[in-house]
Amino acid sequence: MATLIVAARNITRNSRRSLMTISAIAVGTMALLLFGEFVSQIFVTLETQNVVRSGHIALFREGYYQYGAGNPAAYGIRDYRSIIRLIAEDPVLKPMINVVTPTITLFGIAGNFNAEASKTIVGLGVVPTDYNKMHHWDEHHLKLASSAADKPLNEKNDNHGFIGAGLARILGYCEALKLGNCPKRPGVGRQIVLSGSGGNKRDFSSLEEEVKRTNPSTKKEMAPRLDLLAATANGAPNVVNFYVDKAIKQGVKEYDDSLVIMNFTLAQQLLYGRGEKKAVSIVVQLHRTEDIPAARARIKKLIAEKGLKLETRDLMELQPFYKQAVGMFVAIFTFISIVMAVIVLFTVVNTMSMSVMERTHEIGTLRAMGVKRRGITIQFVFEGMLLGLIGATIGIIVGSIAGVLVNHAGLTWHPPGQAYSTPFLVRTKGVGRLLFDIWIGLGCMATLAAWIPAYRAARIKIVDALGHI
Amino acid sequence: MADHPVVVFENVSKVYRVGEISIPALKGISLRIPGRRFSMILGPSGSGKTTLLNMVGCLDQPTDGRIEICGEKVGEISDDKISEFRAKNIGFIFQNFNLIPVLSALENIEYPLTLLKMNPSEQRERGMEMLESVGLAGHARHRPNQLSGGQKQRVAIARALVKGPSLVLADEPTANLDSKTGASIIDLMYRVQEQYGATFIFSTHDPQLISHAQDVFSILDGELIEHRSED
Prior knowledge:
Chain A is an alpha+beta fold. Helix content of chain A is 52%, strand content 16%.
């Protein structure tokens, strides 16, 4: 205790130098904290955006994840309803699960005969009630803008759904879907047909006529209509009518130009025709992301017990971009942390070296009085530690206040891969661990930095120290 | 009548090496300094008296020879043990007082007791007692920079004596004081020496101090040339 008191008083001896050291550490801490909070906000935002879209865990037929995109129909899960029941009613999983739902991913062509336009698509078949429920997932209370919250997927009509804003533009539904940023189409209408041949155009148009003839109520529909074409499991072409309730802008252009979100039943009809209806995957959304390992292990156990040939993939595997973004920000944060640590190290080493030099005579006196080398080392290390902890504490306090100010400044930015500008926020809640890690990390770095001159101070010969002027 | 010797030197030599040059500071000195007395080490500048005092205070090791302080062969023990030995047995009074600037007068006096792990209330009691005995009871909370030279040396004397050491070493304790203050410090040291029964060893040029000496060891060019004792 006496050593700590002496150390505390010693840092006030050259108050200007101590203040500069503390300021450098505080600024470093503040920068690290704000960046850490910003990164933390990005993580939870990305996590939320991905979890509402694809859940935490997905089950596929074995091999689908590697090869299924080439032929999703062939990798259907036949008894998906019983598997969903198995998971949803499992006493271990039940408290963890928010939604368990079947989905279908398919590839095909969407056509708008009136605009003589067609485009290859990625179709996602979802159960509307489950889709809407999944889009309300908000573990981190971010209250992000959600398409489902804005306008939920139609739960009553099987042939209604959403498409990407780019796809809507390509297919000539700018006005109908009230899209912004829609320049006038150049006069190449007849070139934007299925294959460019008049014969195919006539074939597609005849399909439209057939639909109108067999389903007169279509004329009353106000929503823009598309015809979706895909190959069934047997390889035969299949066409369904699809009505677009809304165009949703996607952050990635390729996705924006090809996404169709449709009712699961319609997707089954398109992919399997009159054949046996299956699901391509079963998506599990948990209440909490941290339950992924436990839930995945339990699901694996259940499917192994039942002898099902299914494989599981978690969030990181389902969304490689999320994994890459997390990895990139972790690398940047680590790099900045190292830079800050080096700044703290050099600042404290410099301060403590000056202090040792100025107090060499005092070191000699203390050693003469019977203080051991260890005692000298401890005293200087305490001083460095105090400088570090005071600087880090001030940095944490100022950084926390700055974080609140940033959040109230009304700044916005456009994150990569996102469709809309989002508020520029730093995460100020739920970051206790980050605060502690930065505080203790820089405190330890200052302590370590002080140890170098302290060790040197303890090894000065007593007679040399006493003779030092 | 002299007590048993607290310091025994047998053929002690000390050679400083500066590059390839060897500078002999002590040349085979043998002496015995009796306990509970006022002993002086005299000699001109560069004669080796500070080196000798450093050896007595276990602050430096001889190049050759054997040293025994308070019955302990100090050349044969580790740095940690020798630190403990100093903390327990030897008090130092420096020419420049060498008080710890961030500690008050009372805290400076208490500091050696913290090294002996004495409990805080006893430390405070002993510290105040020493402060009173050097006439500075009213200056307990003053920092060294708030004290005069004489007051600082009084605090230094109290600090050297507070732990009840067998040996007190003083390197020219009156050199930085005016003659009047120096005289009062000498009186104080003489009084506390009698009161606490410690052995005082000085290196000095001060004739006032020399007049109080009971044993005088004269050094010249690293050799002991004379030992006078009032016995």
